[in-house]
Amino acid sequence: MSPARDAVAFVLEGRCAAGRCQSLWIGPDTKRATMVQALGGPSEEAGEIAWTPDGSRVAFIVNGYQLRMFDAKSRAPLGAVVIIDPDGFPSSRIARGVTFSSNGAAITYDDCPRDHSGCKPGMLAIKQ
Fold it and tell me: With a threshold of 0.85, does the pTM exceed it?
């Protein structure tokens, strides 16, 4: 749910030729949402969703290390940013707790090992 509670973003999972696939959706509510991107089968998986504080952009965390951003109103793609350099598939590290700064110019996150404890804080500037 967007910060103003006037839009939603969610991930749908279903069957596809590759087996299990996910798609990313944005809209004013679940009934009027539009698919903004289909992910590439089991090799791509969406996790967290983060909104800018003003609700103008929404980002999906894909594979635990890539931020895929969209304009919340037009639903146009705004690009992708690698948060953590992947070290294979699946990566041994993932980004958790992704949060946009108050002006949307940066994100903070926890850089975590995928299979044990030991997160460390991270921050990254985001092109606006």
Answer: yes
